[in-house]
Amino acid sequence: MTILHIDSSARTEGSVTRDLTAQIVTKLGGDVIRRDLKDALPQITENWVGANFTPADDRDDVQRDTLALSDTLIAELKAADTIVIGLPLYNFGVPASLKAWIDLVARAGVTFKYGENGPVGLLEGKRAVLAVSTGGVPVGSDYDFATGYMRHVLGFIGITDVEMVAADRVVVNGEAAVNAAKAEIEKLAA
Fold it and tell me: Distance between CA 185 and CA 21 in Å, rounded?
């Protein structure tokens, strides 16, 4: 099994999601592709969009260079059987670095296509595990805009087998929230 291990927390020390993703990856075992988003990815630009909508055979060197990072990130996704994503909630949503990653990997004709009934994900048969941490927001509540969004985005590119390990309300519940998440990790099947 190949695991794509993605961390998106800005914190490198004391990050609950980084600790959880490391434990999940160890529990699952296998070869690991590592992607740390602590250093922000570039935002998509007008030039990126133009390169993306230019047919691959018609792209010039500048356009190929513009899409090189996106191509690398997509290759990592395609190579993985399981994607483990650290998802801290920042202001009710996903970290900006994770949103940038999503923008770079959600590409028409590459990770999804348009069919007669709308978009069809092209990365089927993969599993995702989200390691979620929140300060005071209950996971799944009306003001948790991150977990539903991630399930939707992953499903949009074809990844519908999504599991969640949550340490929610860490500020309120402290170590009990983290321990509950660690107990969920032990229940994950390899």
Answer: 9
